[in-house]
């Protein structure tokens, strides 16, 4: 499929919504999946969406996936080698002569002292900035969907979620709003958003008690927040690799200290509609929180 938009990590939380948003606009999308047997959920979007094998450990699939593409959404997985993967994807876009790249980064990527995870994002951003490609960087805050992916099991099984962030307020964003921004940028004239860095948040920073209240209201059963001390979080992550445990602890400390208690208007500025609130998120995903 020539002249299409490539979306990497298309089976993931953010990119699956980017695929949906682009397909909804009737565009030809090449959906990069680690292996074709994982592409079944994308069938619903045929014929606009064409799955393509894109395994970062197999360079031949990377080059084939980028061939003939003119715009690309690049997402690195949350792994220790995400910088190497990001640079690999930027190089593939350069080689293929891609006209526009949208890179998924993280809020505070250039903050100092910042966090290790954000330093990794910044390293990929700099690589992209120096590549000569036309680019737009999206720096989203923490995802509302983390309550499904990371906290979903305890919410479904115990009606509780555990976090070591005290009463820190967090500017969570619904990934559907990240996707809406990405789709807007990827369908506008390339020059419109070229060189922009968009920091994306939800409409309000909310406490974990407020998240619990939204989930309780949406599901009709009491769901509570358990504020755990950092030592308990360390113990719970005893089996996790150091980079992951330390990275999450840095993030929890930032949240606890109020480092995510702010918002931007960028989602609305770019898409002309307000971002989803935590209450709307909870209502829309109610069935996935069912016990
Ligand atoms: N969670 C947050 O609150 C938050 C906030 C800001 C920024 N971020 C950033 O968002 C990114 C993660 O996004 P996400 O949550 O949407 O990720 P995700 O749901 O974990 O999806 C990652 C995608 O990458 C694919 N992938 C992983 N390793 C691969 C490989 N070797 N070859 C090909 N594909 C591979 C996965 O494929 P499979 O399905 O086959 O595994 C999946 O499609 C990270 O860069 C993170 O730092 C996250």
From TrEMBL:
<dbReference type="Pfam" id="PF05368">
    <property type="entry name" value="NmrA"/>
</dbReference>
<dbReference type="InterPro" id="IPR036291">
    <property type="entry name" value="NAD(P)-bd_dom_sf"/>
</dbReference>
<dbReference type="InterPro" id="IPR008030">
    <property type="entry name" value="NmrA-like"/>
</dbReference>
<dbReference type="InterPro" id="IPR051604">
    <property type="entry name" value="Ergot_Alk_Oxidoreductase"/>
</dbReference>
<protein>
    <submittedName>
        <fullName>NmrA family NAD(P)-binding protein</fullName>
    </submittedName>
</protein>
<feature type="domain" description="NmrA-like">
    <location>
        <begin position="4"/>
        <end position="257"/>
    </location>
</feature>
